[in-house]
Amino acid sequence: MPRVPGEKSERKLPTYFSMVAAHNKEGRSGRSISLAIWYQGALVGQISLGGIIYGALRGAHIGYWIDTAYANRGLVTSSVEMLTQFAFDELKLHRIEINIRPENDASRKVAEKSGYHLEGERPRFLHIDGQWRDHLSFVRENPNIS
After folding, report:
1. Of the options 3.40.710.10, 3.90.1210.10, 3.40.630.30, 3.40.1190.20, the CATH number for the domain spanning 16-141
2. C-alpha angle 27/67/102, rounded to 5°?
3. How far is residue 131's CA from residue 74's CA, in Å, rounded to a whole number?
4. Among candidate residues 91, 45, 52, the one with its CA nearest the CA of residue 68
5. Using one digit for the tens of pLDDT, what is the confidence trace for 32-74?
6. Which of 53-57, 114-118, 142-146 has the lowest mean pLDDT?
7. Which of 73, 99, 121, 144 is 20 to 30 A from 128, comparing alpha carbons?
8. Where are the domains of the chain?
């Protein structure tokens, strides 16, 4: 049914399958890589290498989440370290960022343990939960690319 101008349309949330299809499309295009984090047969989190750009930048960003029941077991740190190594060795990326909300101490520890250093603050960086939120930017550069 066509939408009448000025009439509000109902916005449907994407389904799980449409999310997976979108991740697969982005992966096939080489723009992002989304992986599940499994622990003892259970899906406990996700990690993504997104915004992959080649050319002069050769960079990307990493994002992740973990079920709180599986936090503080080193799963995310190991995942970040492995995905970073893949990005450097296989994709030959120069620079990877992890952008973290300032109050997220656990993510800060993950970034630091994974060899990322604080580069600076990004005021109003991402729109989350209805507001533009500040972030801290952690960076790691590929030591094998000059």
Report:
1. 3.40.630.30
2. 85
3. 30
4. 45
5. 999 999 999 999 999 999 999 999 999 999 999 999 999 999 9
6. 142-146
7. 73
8. 16-141
